[in-house]
Write a structure and sequence with these properties.
This protein is mainly alpha-helical. Helices cover 62% and strands 0% of the residues. It has helices spanning 17-25, 30-57, 62-69, 73-86, 92-95, 99-103. The relative contact order is 0.10.
Amino acid sequence: MHDEGKPTIDPNDGASGGDQVAGAAASSDPGVGLAAIRALRTLADRLEDVQVANARSHGWSWQAIAEVLQVSRQAVHQKHSFREGARPDKGAAARGTDSADEAGKDGNHV
């Protein structure tokens, strides 16, 4: 196992951070390449969180999101639905619904 001087790569480090990570992923040094892969996964997870929340706030169903991400509706719901519970739906009280009702509004039950 390689543990001396573990490289750390921050995809948010400066304006060219993404370019540095992409270049590091092609490194011949396995430590640098693997650290870059870890940084890219972290970045991809954060972007997915943001865009799933964006899609839900625009009325997208779990099924529609799942189709774009090419995963099952259950997988995307399990990974992201807890965020909806923490974020109150401003219009739910006025409509007499809650987030659970909204999740199935397209006819698909979650």
